[in-house]
Amino acid sequence: MTNTYQIYLISDSTGETLDRIFLALKAQFKNIDYKIHSYSFTRTENQILKILDDAQKNENSVILYTIVDNNLAKYLANMSDTKKIPCFGVLGNLILNFSKILNQKASHEPSGQHVLNEEYYERIEAIQFTMNHDDGNSINDIEKSDIILVGVSRTSKTPTSIYLANRGFKTSNIPLVNENSLPKKLRDNPKLTCVVGLSTDPQRLVDIRKNRMNSLKESENINYTSIDNIKKEILNAKKTFQKYKWPSIDVTRKSVEEAAASIIKIHEIYLNNAK
Q1: Which candidate, 270, 261, 246, places its Cα nearest to that of 19?
Q2: Hey, CA dihedral for 143, 233, 258, 53, is it positive or negative?
Q3: FRET label pair with 164: which of 13, 50, 266, 271, CA 20 to 30 Å apart?
């Protein structure tokens, strides 16, 4: 019997709150192995059933959730009970419940998640890497990236990269002017690492670029802010994503946190397919 606990984190939003709660929770229990399965934007019974089916296949599965919809939360709790999978809403007494499951007394150490452990230093390294690989810089070792973001100018590549870095992902971002602007090693090996394309609504991009020009107090560059040119940029970018079979997301109505959550899910799929 395996001693690794399969922790299923189920959220109806980005899952950021739940991730942080579990980080604080696991700091209370030493020498326990966990494997995290994160599911964000879970809002239907069908999604829950698929997650529970997967959890049932594993030993030592435990479910934690943050779901606002009471009916959906009750459905998750009832189905988990039927399948005999421990399931807890984050408002429950998590430390007490985990103490019972793990048969280990909690340390009750305050702010245990802030101990300067290996995860902390890996996150700092990811942030440094990401800062050095912003906006197409330092492409010589781009293969060391966990994630590469590709998109036309002003599609939130940098803020999303920084957010991902704070989650521990070494992230490079590359501005897509045309296909030839991509690093040669990426064109030669499109599956070098997990590459995600970022796209957005053309009119929204016009507004963002105009605001950018105004904030810099620069005269408007017609080519940079023209709706016709931007439509062509977006179309060509999508064609490039399709050519290299890179998954892409539309960031038009997504916050940085929401975009990052989608990218992390794509990264998980990439890793599973690479096995």
Answers
A1: 261
A2: negative
A3: 50
Packing angle of the helix pair 256-274, 157-166 (nearest 10 deg): 70
168 and 59, same structural domain? no
Tell me the C-alpha distance between 267 and 147, whole Å: 7
- Domain co-membership, 223 together with 264: yes
When divided into structural domains, the chain yields a total of 2
Q: What is the pLDDT of residues 29-86, one digit of tens each?
A: 878 899 999 999 999 999 999 999 999 999 999 999 988 787 898 999 999 999 999 9
Q: Is 245 exposed, middle or buried (0-12, 13-18, 19+ CB in 10 A)?
A: exposed
Same-domain pairing of 70 and 130: no
CB atoms within 10 A of CB 167: 16
Which uninterrupted H or E stretch holds 126?
A: helix 118-132
Pair (147, 199) in one structural domain = yes
- Alpha carbons 186 and 197: distance in angstroms, whole number: 13
Q: What is the DSSP string of 48-113?
A: HHHHHHHHHHSTTEEEEEE---HHHHHHHHHHHHHTT--EEETTS-HHHHHHHHHT------TTGG
- Domain shared by 230 and 129, yes or no: yes
Residue partners of 149: CB distance under 8 A and separation at least 6 = 157, 160, 161, 171, 172, 173, 174, 195, 196, 197, 198, 263
- Tokens linked to 35: 């494997």
- To 10 degrees, the CA torsion angle through 134, 140, 143, 148? 20
User: Could you say which DSSP state residue 217 is in?
Assistant: T
Per-residue tokens: 126: 């990811």
Query: Can you give the CATH number for the domain in which 150 is found?
Result: 3.40.50
